[in-house]
């Protein structure tokens, strides 16, 4: 006689597949799962639809796209009904390159292309070799030659004439490229067992983070020359660059320090057991894991500093936002500031969105070959 426990379990009924339209199923699950959620979803969708409809009417349907050179009469006639995108082709060269000599603006344009090419090549993991460092050095030297001139038959252009997108890219690139290793050193210093190094690192971070970037820019522009020897002067752009580097280094140091604290203690002990030196241990084992832990806040900090370069306008440097603001001083186009700011915001968005998307690819685990 078969024991009761030997009776096989009855097969469970197969789960019914979801029937109906998958779109309706998604809406029911995410937007209309309950009566309050449904009411809120309807209100938000109505507001969103109204906003999109109004923008399409203003920005596309009734917009003015082209006008004769320096003639804003068509835009003024459509004021209140449609956007005046004609101001972008009218003023784009000043917005992008500032007061750089008109006939030489191919040089900052080529510099922007070189910056973008360097960014793209640096995102390719297969190119993360020593040759990439040499490529950066050579490209930055070429950008310096293009922007300054004075050699190879190029006319000299002082930094007072620089402006627009190249200045924004220069400040952001050098600020983050130099501020990142500085932040690593400060983060390691804050975790050092040597009291002097630890105290100096803490003092640096607390001092820099305790004041806004605006005050550092003022100090670099006004106070810093007072400490220099008589007759010795540093260019205003370089002074602003130093202030941004110091500011970025303090904030990045705290982000990286959080990543170092997240690395398990066993990793340190394993590296010590292998007999690795302090710097090899951190370069090969600790820092790669620490940086991987803090990729989201690191990229958030990068994006914030890329946008904070616009603060240099307070010391008279013409970055992208400043040239956009100056472009609408012309009385014929003064009332169309919204379109200019949207154009500048679109440029900022492209660079920030690219950084955000690239950070997501870094967070994803590497696919085995």
What would you say this structure looks like, in words?
The protein is an all-alpha fold and 369 residues long. It has one domain: MetI-like fold (Orthogonal Bundle). 65% of the residues lie in helices and 0% in strands. It is built from 15 helices and no strands. Helix 5 (106-122) runs antiparallel to helix 6, helix 10 crosses helix 12 (278-293) and helix 14 (320-327) packs antiparallel against helix 15 (337-363). The mean pLDDT is 84.
Q: Give a quick account of the main beta sheet: strands, pairing sense, barrel closure.
A: none
| Shape by Cα distribution | globular
The CATH superfamily is identified as: MetI-like
- Strand residue percentage: under 5%
The low-pLDDT segments are: none
- Report the average pLDDT across residues: 84
Structural class: mainly alpha
- What is the CATH architecture annotation? Orthogonal Bundle
Q: What is the level 1 CATH name?
A: Mainly Alpha
Q: How helix-rich are the residues, as a percent range?
A: 55-70%
Count of separate structural domains: 1
Given the structure, what is the number of helices? 15
Spell the H/E element sequence.
HHHHHHHHHHHHHHH
Distance between the termini: 57 Å
Give the total of beta strands. 0
Task: Indicate the CATH topology.
Answer: MetI-like fold
Radius of gyration from CA coordinates:
28 Å
